[in-house]
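the two lines:
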Amino acid sequence: MNDLMISAGKDTLGVSCDYSTGLIEMEGISYPEDAAEFFNPVFEWIDSYIEHVKGPIEMNLRISYLNTSSTKCLFDVIDRIEEYYKQNNSVQVNWYHEEDDEDIREIGLEFKDDMDLPFEVISY
Amino acid sequence: MTEEEIDKIMKKIFKREFANLDKFKSFIENNQIEDIDLDGNFAELLDAYSILLQEAVKITKISDINQKKLFGANEELEKQKKLLYLASIVDPLLGIYNRTYVIQVLANEFAKCKRYNQVFSCILIDIDDFKQANDNYGHQVGDQILIRVANVIKKELREVDSFGRYGGEEFIIVLPSTSAYQSSHVAEKLRQKIEKTDYSDLGQGVRITISQGISDTSLGHPDTEDALLHHVDTALYQAKHTGKNRSVIYDPNPGDQAFKFKT
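prediction for all of em together
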C-alpha cells in the first residue's frame, strides 16, 4: 500500500495519507469542479487502509472553506471512518480552526454533532 | 460545465443514495414486493432515508455558514477596495485630494463645460516663503503649517468645490459654475483667514500668508485643461512677483494691469 499525497490547488485541498501511521491530513479550501473525482482517491485510500492495514486512524482537518459538494464528500469520508470505529478500531478526528474564525468552528461542530466517533474541534 | 456534466458529478457524489433508490425502485418495477422481506427492507429504506435527511439538513446548515463566510469576506474585500481607492486619491498628510485626483476633476469639469458651454474657475495657491519657514522651524513645523492652511481652506469651500494638494506647498481648488471674478472673492476670504490664523504655538514669529492665481474657462479661452492650468500659474507668478500675500486674476492681455486684490 502507498501513501497518498495531493498538493493543494487554488480550489482544492492539500491531502496527505500516511499508511505507516494511519495519519490523514487535509488542509486548505475546497471547491473543485468535480468534487467526486477529487475525493475518489481519498475514498480508495481509506478503503484500502481499512481492508489491508487495519491500523489506527487519525485525521487532522484544517479547512477554511468547503463548497456544498465537498461537504457531502467529507461527510462520506468521515462516515467510512465512523463505520471503522464502530468495528472497535482506534480512530480520532481533529477539526482545527483559527481562533477568531467562528464560522469554521461552527462547521466543525456541525460535523462533530452528526458523528458517533471521537471528534475534537480545536482552535489554533 | 454543461448541465449534463454537473448531473453526472452529482450522481457520483450521491452514488450510495442513487443505488438505494434504484434497488427499491426495481422491487416495484419487477413486481417483487410480494416476494421480499417487507419488514427488513422497509427498515433498511427508513434507515437510508434517515441518514440522507440528516445529512441533507447538516449540509444545508454548513452551506449556509459557508455562504455567510463568503459574503463576509466579500464585504471585507469591498471595504478594502474602498480604502485602497481612497488612499490612491487622498494626500496622506493633509487628508485632502492629491494632485492626480484634482487634475482628473479639472479635466472632467473642462470636458463638461466645453460641451455645455459653461464656465468654471480654478484657484492655484502657494504658501509664501514656505521653504524659509521649513528651514527656520524644521520640517515637522512645516507639516503642521500645511495641515493648518489646508484645514482653513477646507472650511471655507462649498461641497461642490474640489480641493487638493498640487505640489509641496501648493494647493488647487476647482470651483464649478463659478467665474474667476466670483472666485476672487473666495480667494480673498481665504487669503485673509490664512493671514489672521494664529500659528504662534508652532514657533515664535511664525506668520503665514498665501499668494493665489485665479482664472476661468472664459478668460483667454483656454482650449485644454493644461492651458487653464498655465493661466492660473501665470497669475500666481504675478501675485508672487508683485509682493506676495495677494490674489491675482489671470490677465489675457498682459499689456493692461492685472486685476489684483490686497488688503
